[in-house]
């Protein structure tokens, strides 16, 4: 196979390199949480090369945590998945190189499925040859235009029909749609899916998330890349940080919580209070205020400036049409609509799936066990920002979303070959599965809490 041949070439080149040789056991001790004498050392492996990221992690452009999550592990596949210009990144990595794997060591950890890793890397090469990582700029321009048109329509509704209850609510629905769809668009730029260079993606990302939504790009990057690196891995994926303070998530973690006799909430009722503190509250009662603390605490002044342009524009635009009380009411209602939309869509792909501590399995298995899809349709694609193709998105995070449906049959075929379940379900079933999974994990917690 091509992957095996490439591995042999790398192996031959390393024999004459004169670099220090390491075993996987030695690399595995450098997680940043190891025993003395090197408790803070962090090493990772990319293409058999061993890098010391102990100090670099704090300067890592994607954030210190996302790269540290792979300390002590092979990071070849996530490295390929997250970076556009890999040759440039490797140049910056050169000072971090401390050695290579010993000749008798396998390409990746012995615990990983060799055949599956090789097959996925072949799939990645096929995807690149098919041009599925190349964006269609017209798609994203049209998407931006439809967001701007809806934004204008919301203002015109109140300007023309007045601020009575019906036009006020209709305008709020339009603005809620604008905010949600802008959220999906900023997601595209944040993942470097629109332009061929990281620089342009980052700049436009700041505009879309900052000026169109009033949120900081640095905050999104800090959280979201961790989620992609280790989805549904407790203490590594910030998207499941509501465990155990608010919810008991996943079968394994819920039972563990019950066995330890921990009870921060009545988890056996979490499928009920989810409707109160989940979709309606996440954005207006938490994110809306936390983002300001984040940018000030981390001194992200450029992000703060972009955010302020959104709030200034919003209030100046609607001040001639509504009193201050009406503007605040409209703003909170828009955030309420957006919050419900955002939470149901983003959680339908992950909460019902496997949740556990990081077991350091291969990239393909890591993503498949933590994600599921929702049926492909024009409405579902638009409504979810193509996150109904969550599996493909997680496997190829820089792939433009308009190409997910093209790679899906190839991913299904690889799943079938290795006996891995490829879950795809109707939209309403996916929503219901969030509640069902919360109910199931709550009952597992209660049983363990009372009887184990």
Automatic annotation (TrEMBL):
<dbReference type="GO" id="GO:0016020">
    <property type="term" value="C:membrane"/>
</dbReference>
<dbReference type="Pfam" id="PF00487">
    <property type="entry name" value="FA_desaturase"/>
</dbReference>
<keyword id="KW-0444">Lipid biosynthesis</keyword>
<keyword id="KW-0276">Fatty acid metabolism</keyword>
<keyword id="KW-1133">Transmembrane helix</keyword>
<dbReference type="InterPro" id="IPR012171">
    <property type="entry name" value="Fatty_acid_desaturase"/>
</dbReference>
<keyword id="KW-0472">Membrane</keyword>
<comment type="pathway">
    <text>Lipid metabolism; polyunsaturated fatty acid biosynthesis.</text>
</comment>
<feature type="transmembrane region" description="Helical">
    <location>
        <begin position="304"/>
        <end position="321"/>
    </location>
</feature>
<dbReference type="GO" id="GO:0006636">
    <property type="term" value="P:unsaturated fatty acid biosynthetic process"/>
</dbReference>
<dbReference type="GO" id="GO:0016717">
    <property type="term" value="F:oxidoreductase activity, acting on paired donors, with oxidation of a pair of donors resulting in the reduction of molecular oxygen to two molecules of water"/>
</dbReference>
<keyword id="KW-0275">Fatty acid biosynthesis</keyword>
<feature type="domain" description="Cytochrome b5 heme-binding">
    <location>
        <begin position="19"/>
        <end position="102"/>
    </location>
</feature>
<dbReference type="InterPro" id="IPR005804">
    <property type="entry name" value="FA_desaturase_dom"/>
</dbReference>
<keyword id="KW-0443">Lipid metabolism</keyword>
<dbReference type="Pfam" id="PF00173">
    <property type="entry name" value="Cyt-b5"/>
</dbReference>
<dbReference type="InterPro" id="IPR001199">
    <property type="entry name" value="Cyt_B5-like_heme/steroid-bd"/>
</dbReference>
<feature type="transmembrane region" description="Helical">
    <location>
        <begin position="139"/>
        <end position="161"/>
    </location>
</feature>
<feature type="transmembrane region" description="Helical">
    <location>
        <begin position="273"/>
        <end position="292"/>
    </location>
</feature>
<dbReference type="InterPro" id="IPR036400">
    <property type="entry name" value="Cyt_B5-like_heme/steroid_sf"/>
</dbReference>
<keyword id="KW-0812">Transmembrane</keyword>
<protein>
    <submittedName>
        <fullName>Fatty acid desaturase 1</fullName>
    </submittedName>
</protein>
């Amino acid at each position: 196979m091509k992957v095996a041949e490439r591995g042999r070439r790398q192996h031959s080149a390393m024999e004459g390199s004169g670099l220090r040789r390491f075993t996987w056991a030695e690399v595995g001790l450098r997680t940043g949480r190891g025993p003395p004498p090197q408790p803070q050392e962090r090493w990772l492996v990319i293409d058999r090369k061993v890098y010391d990221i102990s100090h670099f992690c704090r300067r890592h452009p994607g954030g210190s945590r996302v790269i540290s999550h792979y300390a002590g592990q092979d990071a070849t596949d996530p490295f390929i998945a997250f970076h556009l210009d890999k040759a440039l990144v490797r140049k910056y990595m050169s000072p971090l190189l401390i050695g290579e794997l010993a000749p008798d060591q396998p390409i990746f950890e012995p615990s990983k499925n060799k055949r599956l890793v090789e097959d996925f890397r072949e799939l990645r090469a096929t995807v690149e040859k098919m041009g599925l990582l190349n964006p269609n700029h017209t798609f994203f321009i049209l998407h931006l235009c439809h967001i701007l048109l809806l934004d204008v329509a919301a203002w015109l509704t109140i300007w023309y029909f007045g601020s009575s209850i019906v036009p006020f609510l209709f305008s709020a629905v339009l603005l809620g749609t604008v905010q949600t769809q802008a959220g999906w668009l900023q997601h595209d730029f944040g993942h470097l899916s629109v332009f061929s260079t990281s620089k342009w993606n980052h700049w436009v990302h700041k505009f879309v998330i900052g000026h169109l939504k009033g949120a900081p790009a640095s905050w999104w990057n800090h959280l979201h890349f961790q989620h992609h690196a280790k989805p549904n891995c407790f203490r590594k994926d910030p998207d499941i940080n509501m465990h155990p303070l608010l919810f008991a998530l996943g079968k394994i973690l819920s039972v563990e919580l019950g066995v330890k006799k921990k009870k921060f909430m009545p988890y056996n009722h979490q499928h009920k209070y989810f409707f109160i503190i989940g979709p309606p509250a996440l954005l207006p009662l938490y994110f809306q205020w936390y983002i300001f603390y984040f940018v000030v605490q981390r001194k992200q002044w450029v992000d703060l400036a972009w955010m302020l342009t959104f709030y200034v524009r919003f209030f100046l635009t609607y001040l001639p049409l509504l009193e201050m009380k009406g503007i605040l009411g409209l703003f909170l209602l828009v955030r309420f609509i957006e919050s419900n939309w955002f939470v149901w869509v983003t959680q339908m792909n992950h909460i019902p799936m496997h949740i556990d501590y990081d077991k350091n399995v291969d990239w393909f298995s890591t993503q498949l066990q933590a994600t599921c899809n929702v049926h492909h349709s024009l409405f579902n694609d638009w409504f979810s920002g193509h996150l109904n193709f969550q599996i493909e998105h997680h496997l190829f995070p820089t792939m433009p979303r308009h190409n997910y449906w093209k790679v899906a049959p190839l991913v299904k075929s690889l799943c079938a070959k290795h006996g891995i379940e490829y879950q795809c379900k109707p939209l309403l079933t996916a929503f219901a599965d969030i509640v069902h999974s919360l109910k199931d994990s709550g009952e597992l917690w209660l049983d363990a809490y009372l009887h184990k």
